[in-house]
């Protein structure tokens, strides 16, 4: 038997009257939430690709029509990749040293060590403005995982040498008076040969992680790159690729010189300038 109650009926719900399309637009949040997940994911992907493609076309037009900008883009594929690479405005950077070596008892040791940054200052969050080329500086001091172990003193002193599990410090904090410290005790002078030997013995690899927010989707984007001993260039500095345009008086970024290197003195004090680029 079919049971019918007052105010109920069998069959589908029928809607009459009212501007139902306008109702959906007025409550767009719940409208999007009630969309099927595959449709929602497809919409996000299509929107992201289209926005990136529009900016890629703009970069390509500028590259072809404005030689002064010197973007260096020749194809649509290069423009699309460039559009993806330049989506971050502000980001923060972290560096790690990964060593893979055999310990005293013959076992394998695979360990990750944090690397303190001097520029940008990791005490301030190591933030970078990605609208301009940036330089990351890690100082090879007593707390650096790149510091040769034979150059450290055997006696323990928390202000001049690291010891597990003490927190990592920076020698620059001692130099500028931010932290009290005794005079550092270096058993053997640190040389390029000693650092290279330490890299080879521990199979050291430096991992750099850049993480920021994508302004297009507000999602977190991350870029990672690693460097081994064969990737390190000694006594060189990046060429100056940012300058003032002589005609427009604006910022001129020369991407043809972005990866170029110039030789510098091995004395670190002689390299310091007001603008590294």
UniProtKB/TrEMBL annotation:
Biological process per Gene Ontology, one example term: regulation of monoatomic ion transmembrane transport
GO cellular component, one term: monoatomic ion channel complex
Membrane-traversing stretches: 40-62
Protein name, as recorded: Inward rectifier potassium channel C-terminal domain-containing protein
Keyword Transport found: yes
Keywords: Ion channel, Ion transport, Membrane, Potassium, Potassium transport, Transmembrane, Transmembrane helix, Transport, Voltage-gated channel
Inward rectifier potassium channel C-terminal domain sequence ranges: 86-147, 197-268
Membrane topology: Multi-pass membrane protein
Family assignment from sequence similarity: Belongs to the inward rectifier-type potassium channel (TC 1.A.2.1) family.
Classification via Pfam families: IRK_C
Main location: membrane
Molecular function GO labels: inward rectifier potassium channel activity
Record localization: Membrane
